[in-house]
Amino acid sequence: MKTKATIEKEPRFTSLVEVLDDAKCSDFISVQLARIETARVNAIYKAGKGAKLKKGPYDYLLDRGMLHPTALIEEFKLIDQKKSILPSSTRSLITEICLHSMQETITYWQKIDEAPEVKKPRAKKKSTVTKV
Fold this sequence. Notes:
The chain has helices at 16-21, 23-47, 57-63, 69-80, 88-114. Helices cover 58% and strands 0% of the residues. The protein has one domain (16-111). The longest helix has 27 residues, at 88-114.
């Protein structure tokens, strides 16, 4: 007879593709893209009026309409298979974003899976005795 302590749960993810296909991973990729955009806006603001940033991997993705989670995930899969035709700096940016988001996804689900169940407190029964 197995007790609760000896029952092992199967892992939620068995491959990188499963982590990438998880909805939370897409959410974390969106957060990463928003952070990069905020950092770029702040850099322009600090540089002063009329300042422009040098074009980089972010701009490359922006010009090609690839700044959304599904496109980055698909390109990451191509990078993993060594079939991507993007420049190395752009591949590095995609890899960094996806790996960070995958780590956040795994950590998120580990915390959820390991969290103890929260029991709802029982409602207090009203007394049937009437006070005089």
